[in-house]
Amino acid sequence: MKLLYFAWLKQRTGISEETVSPPDDVRTVAALVDWLRLRGPGYADAFADLRPIRVAVNQEFAAFDSAIGPDDEIALFPPVTGG
Amino acid sequence: MKLLYFAWLKQRTGISEETVSPPDDVRTVAALVDWLRLRGPGYADAFADLRPIRVAVNQEFAAFDSAIGPDDEIALFPPVTGG
Amino acid sequence: MSPSGTVIRVQEADFDVGAEIAAVSDGQPSVGGVAAFVGLVRDIAGGAAVAAMTLEHYPGMTEKALAAIAAEARSRWPLDGVCIVHRFGRLLPGDRIVLVVTASAHRDAAFDGCRFLMDWLKTKAPFWKREETPDGDRWVAARSDDDRAAERWLATPAPLSEKAP
Amino acid sequence: MSPSGTVIRVQEADFDVGAEIAAVSDGQPSVGGVAAFVGLVRDIAGGAAVAAMTLEHYPGMTEKALAAIAAEARSRWPLDGVCIVHRFGRLLPGDRIVLVVTASAHRDAAFDGCRFLMDWLKTKAPFWKREETPDGDRWVAARSDDDRAAERWLATPAPLSEKAP
Fold first, then answer.
1. pTM for this one?
2. Which residues of chain B lie closer than 8 angstroms to C39, CB-CB?
3. A82 belongs to a structural domain
4. Residue A35 covered by a domain
5. Under 8 Å between Cβ of C34 and C103
6. CA-to-CA separations, D23 to C1, C85, D13, D82, in angstroms, rounded
7. B82 with C140: Cβ contact below 8 A
8. Is B24 part of a structural domain of the chain?
9. How far is CA B72 from the centre of its chain?
10. Among B50, B40, B52, B53, CA closest to B13
11. What would the mean pLDDT of D96-122 be, rounded to a whole number?
12. Domain membership flag for residue B83
């Protein structure tokens, strides 16, 4: 499972991209985030509040209850501010 | 009194610009047009129907009942179609 | 750019769209958005092929009318720059006719101002178009759609800006 | 211009506004109007001076998101050409950030399409801005105004075109 972080989520986790293998019971974005929080203080800080966090699964906007699997690319980032 | 004609009004009158001295009782655009109609078949044809005709007095859009005097510049033309 | 930040030009020559757009916000780092519209000669109109178009105008009044429309736009929206360039003379399909550019801190004012200028220009600036078609020349009639487009700004001075300033 | 008439580019380099606008209608004499919007870096934001701005994006998803927004615009309005160019990297006040261009037979479709693209791009394309201010760097927060601007197109797919087609 490939993870990407953008903007202040990248800064707080200290990571822009990583490949992880969470347990089999991690089947949604929400479950993934719960699991990520346990990986260290940077993650716990980054994911303390999910309200300002958006998610994309395989480069499409998705919801926290979206299903995910080992081959997916999951991105976590704040609301977009382009243009 | 300076008169200008544009678009098909110029074509029908055969004139783009002329200086005229109508009688003193010609004090509105409507009276001017009534007087112009008598000047020849080109004018009569051009001013047969006033509905598709617009007017400007001293380079500002005006109405047929607008007051006019000897020093004014009066333009007669169809509805504008620029842009 | 004039001191007032409004550029009005009526000319036979073509214009440089990129240069005009750049000039409207040049040296004004408070500008966040520039909206522009370019009107072009179409090769078909009212179902007929158009080989060429000739634009007639009323020298003197044209510039005044465009300046008045620009002033009206600036009174309605916080615009940091306005540019209107309108051509006259004989033009071919694909040729540029008109350019309207507005600059503002925010995009909604730029968009609204630009559209307002085009709508009012169509009905309030003294230009007339004659088209050359296979059936001969014809004067283009004013469109009721254009009247309605101009009138929508009377009922609602700044309809979309209110929703998203 | 791609065969579909939609150009999407995400790049660090600046772009040539005049050339991009010309390309959207090039060789299409049925186009009567081209609307364009240029977004620029402002020197002030949220009351603070901005010395520079860095745009981060999500390579791969960005292009897909912009292509989807362009396709949505083309499904709503009869557009003969669409161009979106968005920069990333570090930019200074006055620098161009984004260009959106739409071409259509009629001006209302071009205006509506252009504005729609900007509104949706602001809320649906994965870009993030970091500003350099006297108080340090800060990530730009999403604006609720932008959400509302995007949402107005859900309620009324083509509000102004209906009034003046």
1. 0.93
2. 83
3. no
4. yes
5. yes
6. 27, 20, 18, 10
7. no
8. yes
9. 12
10. B40
11. 97
12. no
Q: What angle do CA B30, B36, B38 make, to 5 degrees?
A: 120
- Using the Cβ of D118 and the Cβ atoms of chain A, whether some distance falls under 8 Å is answered with yes
| pLDDT on residue C45 | 87
Say if A82 is an interface residue toward chain D (CB within 8 Å): yes
Q: State the best of C16, C50, C108, C115 to mutate against chain D, taking most chain D CBs within 10 Å.
A: C115
- Judge if ipTM > 0.90: yes
The CATH number assigned to the domain holding A44 equals 3.10.20.30
Query: Which of D17, D25, D37 lies closest to C33 in CB terms?
Result: D37
Q: What pLDDT is stored for residue C67 in this prediction?
A: 98
Q: C interface mutation test: which of D106, D115, D118 has the most C CBs within 10 A?
A: D115
Residue of C nearest to B59 (CA): C61
Per the prediction, chain C carries an average pLDDT of: 92
Task: Count structural domains, chain A.
Answer: 1
Residue D162 scores a pLDDT above 70 = no
List chains adjacent to chain B, taking adjacency as at least 3 C-beta pairs closer than 8 Å: C
Give C57's contacts in chain B (Cβ within 8 Å).
82
Classify D43 as helix, strand or coil. Answer: coil
Contact list, B79 vs chain C (CB under 8 Å)? 123, 141-142
Domains and CATH numbers, chain D: 12-154 (3.90.1170.40)
d(CA B52, CA B9) in angstroms, rounded, equals 10
Please say if the pLDDT value at position D1 is more than 50.
no
What value does the mean pLDDT take over residues B24-36?
A: 97
The pLDDT score that the predictor gives to residue C156 is 59
Contacting residues of D for C163, CB less than 8 Å apart: 148-149, 152
* Alpha carbon distances (Å) from B42 to B5, B10, B60, C69, C139: 12, 10, 25, 34, 18
The range of the structural domain enclosing residue B20 comes to 2-77
